[in-house]
Write a structure and sequence with these properties.
Order of helices and strands: EEEHEEH
Number of helices: 2
Strand content: 25-35%
Radius of gyration: 12 Å
Amino acid sequence: MLTVRLTPKASRDEIEGIAELADGTAVLKARVRAIPEAGKANAALTKLLAKALGLSESRIDLRSGATGRTKILELTGDPQDLATRLTALTAKL
């Protein structure tokens, strides 16, 4: 599971870095140009993460937070491979 803090209606699509919520939860911060209407921002987030991690969009599933800014996503695949991809992504930030 991956927790993401999403900002819609941004000037560009990007992964900003890692942050900590008030409750201490570590999140990946992302922003997308899409508006938060009819699932457009969630779809843009899935597309952004798929590209950044080198995964197909079908391997990323929104588990909770469809209408909120904090999303919990499930990434399917080999756990070691996913961990390596996430580590490489966050090292670039």
